[in-house]
Amino acid sequence: MVSVAFINPLSVEGRQVVREMGNLDSFREENGDIINVVIHTRSQDISDEESIPHNYLDLAVKRLEWYIKKRNDPNFDYNKYSFLFNYKITRFDVISFYLLCQAVGVKFGPNSRESRAMVESQGKLMESRLSEFSRIDREELIKKILDSLLNDERVKWTFFEDILSSHKLKLEDLVMDHGNIILNKEDFIESFSSKIQHRDPDKIYNMMIGDKVKELIMNRMIMQKTEDYIYKVHQKSRREIEPNPILLELAEKVSNVLSESFTSYGYKVGVNGEVKAAPLNSNAFPPCVKLVLEGMKSGGRNDAIILFFTPFVSYARLYPDVFRKNVTVKVSDVDPNLSVVQNEILPLVYGAAEQCTPPLFEDQPQEKVNINAKLGFGMHTTVDLKHEGESIWYTPMSCEKVKLHLPSLCKPDKTCKRIGNPLSYYIRKLWESGETNGDHEGNEE
Ligand code: SF4
Questions:
Q1: Which atom of ligand 1 is found nearest the CA of 425?
Q2: What is the pLDDT of residues 108-164, one digit of tens each?
Q3: Could you tell me the distance, in angstroms and rounded to a whole number, from the CA of residue 278 to the centre of ligand 1?
Q4: Which end of the chain has less Cβ packing within 10 Å, N or C?
Q5: Where a domain ends, among 264, 296, 330?
Q6: DSSP secondary-structure letter at 269?
């Protein structure tokens, strides 16, 4: 049987591996055992030396790179990462997991994009690894892991407070009876069979809970524990004088993986993950956006600022290629420190809100929360990385939608004839003026 540490590196078995691990300084030395597992993995591409990790640091970088490339790279090649799905990699993989968490915790802390990428990558890796097992093995592994994560057979929903409040899990994903989470079939039948009429309770159980809810809970709990571990490392590192240089070296590599990935797929991100200055050019704005900037004097004020203008300026400034790339990103993927959001985008949106008659926040200050929500930071009064993902980053409205919902804004000029979205108008105008050089056709919303 595969070790549970292959799925959950934070398990007792995983922690045992870490206790036995050697000196950190040896982790950048060539490791024949790692290479051996990798090159003997079925379907692993060994023709490209770059695909083969030679030591623990390489392995840690590959572990994260798999997730980033799988998510963003249209030419992602699974065979370059097959070794991650070979259970014989477990011992080395567990150590690389701890190295990554420590490097991220020491250098970036728990509310960073690096931390988020690490936690999400762990979630995806567990999911992908489990999907490669037979149903029986998968069930057995999930049961074993869940039993160790949930100390009691009957678990109150409050047990999941952290996961629920961080939105890793939603209440509607769970089936409850008097506040207890129902996970096994016997409990389900005991609680609900009398209420189920003319249906087979077994089938209803499989439909509502079955393996999928158990796997989801297990996955989210381990993601939360990964985040907690990064937080603990971060807190501890603040009390220490000098972090281990190996961890700093790995942290640098992690940052490069994220930044290189964004650069390769068309984002304007510098080597340190900082967004290069690409100020908005108001001369290239379409007529509808110019009208909003002049101030909304009639109906549609709130929608014009919140639903139309905020998505337009944020994408125009941070990710103008959204429709062509067709890759979903979060604001922090392209503005890691949120400095552009804080210093450019929000002031522009607030300025447009101020121009309205009456000024938007004068009678409805609570609408600032809605603006943050449209940028992907949930319903909160400030934009904060820890809330990112609670809502989605709205893409700019198409011309069709503008004409339908905000008809007073649409005063087309001759460029409008050739585009379907105000963002495409902006890009086209920049291109015509020589400020950009791409073909920006895409699936416009
Ligand atoms: S056609 Fe599109 S870009 Fe032009 S004014 Fe109307 S909504 Fe704006």
A1: 3
A2: 888 787 888 899 899 999 999 999 999 899 999 998 998 888 876 667 777 777 777
A3: 23
A4: N
A5: 264
A6: B
CA–centroid distance, 407 to ligand 1, in Å, is: 10
Mutate to test the pocket of ligand 1, among 290, 292, 402 (most ligand atoms within 8 A of CB): 402
Q: Name the token pair of 78.
A: 């699974």
Q: Which residues of the chain have pLDDT under 70?
A: 152-154, 166-167, 260-278, 298, 325-327, 434-445
Q: In this structure, are 251 and 356 located in the same domain?
A: no
**Which of 303, 406, 416 has most ligand 1 atoms within 8 Å of its beta carbon, as the pocket-test mutant?**
416
**What are the two backbone dihedrals, phi and then psi, of residue 363, each rounded to the nearest 5 degrees?**
-100, -15
CA atoms within 13 A on the CB side of 302: 10
Rounded CA-CA distance 269/261 in Å is 9
Nearest Cα residue to atom 6 of ligand 1: 410
What is the number of domains present in the chain?
2
3-class DSSP assignment, residue 170 = coil
Q: What is the pLDDT of residues 5-22, one digit of tens each?
A: 999 999 999 999 998 877
The 8-class DSSP code of residue 112 comes to: S
Q: What is the largest CA-CA distance in the chain?
A: 71
Q: Are 308 and 408 in contact (CB under 8 A)?
A: no
* Claim to verify: residue 94 and residue 47 sit in the same structural domain: yes
Q: Residue of the nearest CA to atom 2 in ligand 1?
A: 399
289 alpha carbon to ligand 1 midpoint, in Å? 8
Per residue, what are the HEC states of 144-166?
HHHHHHCCCCCEEHHHHHHHHHC
Cis, peptide link before residue 358, omega less than 30° from 0: yes
Residue 270 domain-assigned?
no
139 and 45 in a single domain? The answer is yes
Q: Where in the sequence is the domain holding 57, given as residue range(s)? A: 4-149+212-264
Helix/strand/coil percent split, the chain, to 5: 65, 0, 35
In a domain, 367, yes or no: yes
Q: If you measure from the C-alpha of residue 287 to the centroid of ligand 1, how many angstroms do you get, rounded to a whole number?
A: 6
Take atom 8 of ligand 1 and give the residue whose Cα is closest: 288
The pLDDT score that the predictor gives to residue 250 is: 96
**DSSP state for residue 49 in the 8-state scheme:** G
